[in-house]
Amino acid sequence: MSPTHQQHGTPPGWQPPSGIERALYEARLRGDWPAYYDVVARSHLYLAQPRAEVEARPGRVLFLPYWNPHTRSKCLAVHTTGMLPAPVPDPVFTQQSLGWLARVWEPGDPPYLVVNPGSPCEGVLPATPEGRALWLQHDARVQRVGLAEDAVHRLDVGGPLQGPVAFGLATGAHLSVRNGEFWNTMGYHGGGIRHERQRLEEWWGITTREDWSNALRRLLSADMVSDVWEFVLQVRRSLVQDYAGPVSLEHWRDTAERVVRARAEAAAQPRLTPDGVIASRTVSPTAIESRVAGVRRLVGRIARYEARFRADGLLPEDGYVRTAEAWDYGRAAGMARWGLGARYGTLAEAEAAVVRAGRLVRTNYRSWADFSAAYVLGRCLHFDEEEFGEWYETALTGHRVLMSDPASPWLTVPWN
């Protein structure tokens, strides 16, 4: 059964927002409806929902039909990712699939499903029992619904490609590549409001606007990166500057140990303040030895990661990571968009945070490759435990993709 459709023509200058809509338009132009169904089946489909309803009944999805003058009937509208409007407080969107729609459709529901209504890539899909059986046939053929993971995806229309916002979004490209998302979607809906709220609660414990604002502030301040990581890396930076060259592992370890012991000794001395002498902060010998041992282990751990980075092309032969703050800045760009998708923040707030993340990255790093190595080190120190497993391998894949794909923002958005 072929979809019914009206010929709208192609408006002068119309450009598909992404490869999804381009494939839909080209299939429609050819009259190749099996191909059209295939694209719809492997694409996320978004339904508008009243925000109050979503917040009151998170597990419920409403079908809100509209009157279509061409079919002379009520229809249910869905949008593909590139055709979504900019986020507003209300309505919000829920993300579904063609297979899901086929399974939940009931006899009293609208007789047609309309994909991207009113656009040159519109398709009007009959929702009769035979039509829904066809939806399920195409759904069964797809291996994955949504954009491929570990690949660069971008909006050709509707997302920044140059300038400060694009640069800021590019700092979060590791996350976009890993999650199979458009790297340059500033007007972000993600997986719909439910999905974005679940993600923030599961991974970050964020359930309110206040939680989100606090997490974003801390990330932009590099306040979530471990102080111990930064201490150890700062010791090496100082040594490299003092000696104007490479620093041996033992020299780095010994210097870090001396600084730990010196700080403990200084903390034990009484201090004179304008209000008078204040008490010292004595640290027990056992605690000092524990700190020293931890710092020496961390130096070795970082050195081993960097050796692997050099072998895998994440670092040049003589390269090293100066600061792991990239781990927070890259996640800040992601957090800004996730909060927007969850409606904990506004588009203006998210954009300002993304631009700030970009400025911080440009200030603290010398190139996209320099930033990436630092981001991967932070990710590995946080998650990987020197297993060089999935947390490392997926980050390495993201780095390689972003440094080689012609569509990558790291090759198209200038560093300076």
Structure description:
- The chain has 416 residues and is α+β, with helices and mostly antiparallel strands.
- The chain has 17 helices and eight strands.
- It has helices spanning 19-30, 33-41, 51-56, 98-104, 129-141, 164-170, 173-179, 193-204, 209-220, 227-243, 249-267, 285-312, 326-341, 347-364, 368-383, 390-404, 409-412, and strands at residues 45-49, 66-68, 73-78, 92-96, 112-115, 123-126, 271-273, 276-278.
- It has a four-stranded mixed sheet, with helices on one face. It has a two-stranded antiparallel sheet with strand order 1-4. Strands 7-8 form a two-stranded antiparallel sheet.
- The longest helix has 28 residues, at 285-312.
- The N and C termini lie far apart (54 Å).
Proportion of residues in β-strands = 5-15%
Distance between the termini: 54 Å
Categorize the overall geometry.
elongated
Overall number of strands: 8
Unreliable residue runs: 5-9
Annotate the secondary structure layout.
Elements: H1 19-30, H2 33-41, E1 45-49, H3 51-56, E2 66-68, E3 73-78, E4 92-96, H4 98-104, E5 112-115, E6 123-126, H5 129-141, H6 164-170, H7 173-179, H8 193-204, H9 209-220, H10 227-243, H11 249-267, E7 271-273, E8 276-278, H12 285-312, H13 326-341, H14 347-364, H15 368-383, H16 390-404, H17 409-412
Parallel strand pairs: 3-5
Antiparallel strand pairs: 1-4, 2-3, 5-6, 7-8
Helix pairs in contact: 1-2, 2-5, 4-5, 6-14, 7-16, 9-13, 11-12, 12-15, 13-14, 13-15, 15-16
